[in-house]
Amino acid sequence: MSSIIWILLLAVLAVTTAILTANGGAFVLLVLPPWRIELSVAAFVIAVLLLMVLGFFVTRVTAGTLNLPSSIRALRMGRQRAKAQEAVLFAVQSFFEGNYARAEQAAQRALTQGESVGLCAVIAARSAHQQRRFIERDQYLENFHSLLPADRILQLSTQADLLLDERRHQEANEVLRRAREIAPRNQTLRRLTLRAQVLMRQWDLVLKSLQSLEASKGIDRPHADAIRRQALLGLLARHGQDTSSLRTFWRSLSNRERTDRALVISAASLFIGLKLMDDARTLLEQALDESWDTEFALLYGKCTSSSILEQVKKAEYWLNQHPQDAGLLLSLGRLCLHQSLWGKAQNYLEASLALEPSREARAMLEGMGSNLIPRTPKMRPLPPDVEGG
C-alpha cells in the first residue's frame, strides 16, 4: 500500500513540474540578504529532490549508528536462540534414539537458555528416569513447575506417568487427582488414571473408567476388552470366597462376558472350589454347547454334580462329535470312575493316554488297582531266523 502511495506522489510531482516548466519562463527566486538566487522551476525541483534524498540517507545512517548496540545485541540473541533450538532438536532426536545421557545434556543446555522450557524439562526428566536417577528426575520436574506455573498438565501427567513406571501407585494417583481437577476431560489423564487403577487392582473403578473412555473414544476396542477381562477376573477372584457373592456377581455379567473363555474357566474353577458342582456343570455345559474347548471339557470332569450319570451321557454325546479329544476322554474316565464304572473308566482313560500322555490319567489307572481289567497281550511274530531255527 505504501508503495502505491509513493508512486502516486511521484506522478503528481512529475505532472506539476511538467506544467510549471511547459512555457520555459517560470522561475524561483530565493532571497537571502544580501544574496539573491534565481532558479528555474526544473532546477529547483531537482535540487529539492536531491536534498530530500540526502536527508533520508543522513537520517538512516544516524539512526543505524544510534541503534547499533541494540542491533548487535539482537543479533547475538538470535544466534544464541538458534543454538538453543538446535539443542532442543538434538535432545529430542537423542531421546528417541535411546541415548538418554546425551538427550539430558542437550535438554539442559536448552533449559539454561530458556528455550522450549516445558519440552526440555520433560525430556530431561524422562532421560534421567531411564537412567534410574530419580532424584534428578524430580528436580527437573520441580524446576519446570517453578518456571511455568501456568502449564501444570504437562508437568503433572509426566510426573504421574514416571511414578507409575516406578510402581509408586499411590503417589501417582494423588498427582493424577490434582491434574484432573484442572482438566477433567483430558484423555491422557484418563488413560493414566486407568493404568493406575489397574496397577492398584481397583477393579470397580477400572470398569467405570473404561466405560467413560469408550464413550469418548479414548481407547481402542481390543485394548479395552483385555483390560475389562482382567478387571472381571479380579472381581471374580474377590467374590470367589463366598457362595452367594459369587453367584450374584456371575449372574450380573452380560451374555457376552459369560461366554468369554478366561472368565468361564475362572468361574468354573471357583464354583468347583466352593463345591457348587451344579453351578459349574450348568456353566460349562452352556459354554461347551456354544463353543467347543478342551479346557472346558477337562473342567467338566471335575464337576461331580448330583447327576453324574446324566453328565456321562452328555459327555458321551459330545464324544461322538469330538472322538479325538483327549481332555474329554479323561473327563469321561474321571466321571465313570466316580460312579465305579470300572470298565468304562479304564477304556476312556486308556484311550486318553493313547492320544495324549497324561499324569492324571496314569495316576487314576494306577489307583484303580484290582479293578483293572487284564488285557491279553497280542502275539508278536518271531523274526525269520528264529522261525527257521
Helix content: over 70%
Q: How many angstroms does the end-to-end distance come to?
A: 124 Å
Query: What's the CATH architecture of the domain at 307-373?
Result: Alpha Horseshoe
Identify the CATH homologous superfamily of the domain at 307-373.
Tetratricopeptide repeat domain
Q: Could you say which structural class the secondary elements and strand pairing correspond to?
A: mainly alpha
Tell me, what's the shape? rod-shaped
- Quickly count the helices: 21
Task: Report on the biggest sheet.
Answer: 2 strands, antiparallel
**Beta-strand percentage?**
under 5%
Order of helices and strands: HEEHHHHHHHHHHHHHHHHHHHH
Low-confidence stretches: 377-389
Determine Rg (CA atoms, Å). Answer: 45 Å
CATH topology call of the domain at 307-373: Serine Threonine Protein Phosphatase 5, Tetratricopeptide repeat
Describe this structure in words.
Among the domains are: 27-61, no CATH class; 307-373, Serine Threonine Protein Phosphatase 5, Tetratricopeptide repeat, CATH 1.25.40. The chain has helices spanning 2-20, 41-66, 68-97, 100-112, 117-130, 134-147, 152-165, 169-182, 187-199, 203-215, 221-239, 243-252, 255-258, 261-273, 277-290, 294-300, 308-321, 326-338, 342-355, 359-368, 384-388, and strands at 27-32, 35-40. The model is unreliable at 377-389 (pLDDT under 50). It starts with a helix and ends with a helix. 26% of the residues are buried. It is built from 21 helices and two strands. It has a two-stranded antiparallel sheet. Helix 3 runs parallel beside helix 5 (117-130). Helix content is 75%, strand content 3%. The chain has 389 residues and is mainly α. A hairpin with a 2-residue loop joins strand 1 and strand 2 (35-40).
